[in-house]
Amino acid sequence: LEERETLAAQFEDELSQRIPIRHWSDLEENYDPQWLDTFNGNILPSSLSTSGLILNDTIYLQPCHTRYGPFPYCESMRHGSFSVMKSMGAAIAMLRLAEIYGEEVFEFKIVDYVEVTADHDGWEEVTLGDALNMATGIGDDLPEQAEPNVMMADEEGDEQIFNGFMEAMSAKEKADVCFTAGNYPWDPGQVARYNSCHTFILSVAMDSFLKSMEGADADIWDMVLEEVYRSIGIYHAPIMRTVEPDGGRGIPQFWVGLYPTVDDVAKVATLLRNGGQHQGQQLLHAGKVAEALRQTDVSGLPTGEINDHGEGTYHMSFWSMPYRSTAGDLYQIPYMSGFGGNRVLLNPNGIITFQFADAHIYGFESMVQVADGMDAFVAPQD
After folding, report:
1. CA-CA distance, 96 to 231, in Å (whole number)?
2. In the beta sheet, which residues pair with residue 356?
3. Would you give the distance in Å from CA 272 to the centre of its chain?
4. Which residue has the higher pLDDT, 231 or 380?
5. Which of 148, 178, 307, 336 has the greatest number of beta carbons closer than 10 A?
């Protein structure tokens, strides 16, 4: 009975920390319905798990769908985030490590924390920060005419490696497959090449570093869950881990495998929007959060993705694209992105917009335009 009462009290506390959810149509009280209707761009409702925005600490949510029809329990629906995990997992873990141990963790070498089995010395100078930036300088997919300013997806060119990586079960097996890739002619930190293998190697390195500081029982995801997620009101965060032959817990797969609710997404995005601070406590390294969100002079490496306003970049597991506001100011909008069409955008006015979809339409501008139209982006004055 005592345990039951304790669990009931914990659940009540958990419910009390949920962000209020209102129906999307409630926005029509203050905003033009025709304007709001443009939010999803050309994505069909049947291809959307859900979408919405966070405004004034409230989630305004569109209906939830599955391929078999509407899903009635939208607030409890868990979404396959895919590479949004790189931002909500790998980046959050690094930002927490930086807050605890100092931002120099970004400069620590992979080889000091991971057994590298590559037959070349390309990994010798690769840092944890390089891996987070997808700028290891490791890979085989070199085109006949190298295009350093185009962020090719190495995992598509190195299909044999990527397939082997996905099929491997244990951390060592996965890492060994990743280490079969060659060495590009450029140095680490110079060119971005999208490769989930490298986020996994970062996962191993972060976990190993944490164990070196806190002992063999330390676990990088436990740290994120206990010191960040639970602090902001996230109590359940199911993830994928490697499957180890000895039955151990395995390494968290920060390249993919988080299944968040919209409440989880809103809380993590809000923490980032607030500079890594929650209720007066600095959970994430403030300077590095600002860097990730393109609020410093560090813009990231070019992706080759271009729109009418300029070129996109990648940095610290966050993408960005340029946008010129209705007021005429140019911004670099940071966002999380995942396979299928998952996007979480942190707009300059504080409004967070998101979509979870499987249409493989990677929308950007329509969500930004709606946010800008709701509360015009105003550039800070010098």
Report:
1. 12
2. 50
3. 11
4. 231
5. 178
Asked if 322 and 141 touch (Cβ cutoff 8 Å), the reply is no
Closest C-alpha among 328, 331, 297, 287 to residue 312: 331
d(CA 270, CA 371): 15
Buried b (16+ CB within 10 A) or exposed e, 30-51: ebeeeebeebbbebeeebbbbb
C-beta neighbour count of 226 within 10 angstroms: 11
How far apart CA 62 and CA 126 sit, in angstroms, is 43
Give the CA distances from residue 243 to residues 169, 326, 358, in Å, rounded to whole numbers and listed in that order.
5, 50, 27
Of the given ranges (108-112, 128-132, 182-186), which has the lowest mean pLDDT? 182-186
Q: Which tokens belong to 70?
A: 């509407």
Beta-carbon contacts of residue 272 (< 8 Å; ≥ 6 apart)? 284, 289, 292, 293, 346
Query: Tens digits of per-residue pLDDT, 268-287?
Result: 999 999 999 999 999 999 99
Whether the predicted model's global pTM rises above the 0.85 cut = yes
Task: Give the list of residues 6+ apart from residue 61 with CB closer than 8 angstroms, or none.
Answer: 21, 22, 23, 24, 50, 52, 74, 75, 262
3-class SS shares of the chain: helix, strand, coil, % to 5: 40, 20, 45
Asked whether 317 and 268 are in contact (CB, 8 A), the reply is no
Residue 45, phi then psi, degrees to nearest 5: -55, -35
CA atoms within 13 A on the CB side of 233: 22
